[in-house]
Amino acid sequence: MSKLSGIRTSGIWSALMLAVTLLSPAIAAAQGLDNATAAALESALAGPQRSDRNKARDQYRHPKETLEFFGLRRDMTVVEIWPGGGWYTEILAPLLKGSGKLYAAQYGASATFDYQRKEDAALIEKTRKFPDAFGEVQFTSLWSPGSLAIAPPGSADLVVTFRNVHNWFDPGYKQDPAKVFGAFFAALKPGGTLGVVDHRWPNAKTEDPKAANGYVSEERVIALAKAAGFEFAGRSDVNRNPKDTHDHPNGVWSLPPDVSVKPGEDRQKYLDIGESDRLTLKFRKPAAR
Do both 248 and 113 map to the same domain? Predict the structure, then answer.
């Protein structure tokens, strides 16, 4: 092949790659953590505020890669939605302390389930036990339709929600998913990011409308976010689990960390699968609105 031919081929290939990058937000990659954020994240991941049990789940939840994909910086204002017992709060709170701000939008006084009240109490106890890590967290609440002020309007750089969206389709929670996503949109600055992780149902045509098995499709989450005004900014496979067959007797709760199975069931089968197959999606509030 001549030198000229090689240059021409190289130019065509570069143009094609550029076109794919511009036209396909679905393959958006993480930008990489800056040095200060990377150091703070490593410190938070290894910190004493995290139990050994929670650290052991890093192999399934991939916090470093997930937060990197969402574009986290330690000087950001971040809102964590329904932090529950605080698995991610244990990481975000010390990471943002001193340079950024964390709002923890918990269930609030309207919570109707015992597990929510127990998680809320556990997180409060955790903040008391580790004041150095959690001392700057500001608690708000999210419960539609009456409690949607998760942070001051237009103040947040990043809103994150982990394994919560499926709950808002469950009639038992009495939530309005559209209002919930509207609250995310209102809290974010123009150009701000929404990061979503949830149990992934692989086929939108066959998913349970009530998400009673704990799974929700990417298509459904994307449609919900777009209806609230967000632009789709990409997906990551970092939390995918190809071992998850999505057809367990007790839905996602058959899998770790719950492993909720009937007596006599093969518990090891679910331990071998690991935690659920999860979608990881990123959205952006338009810069000019």
Answer: yes
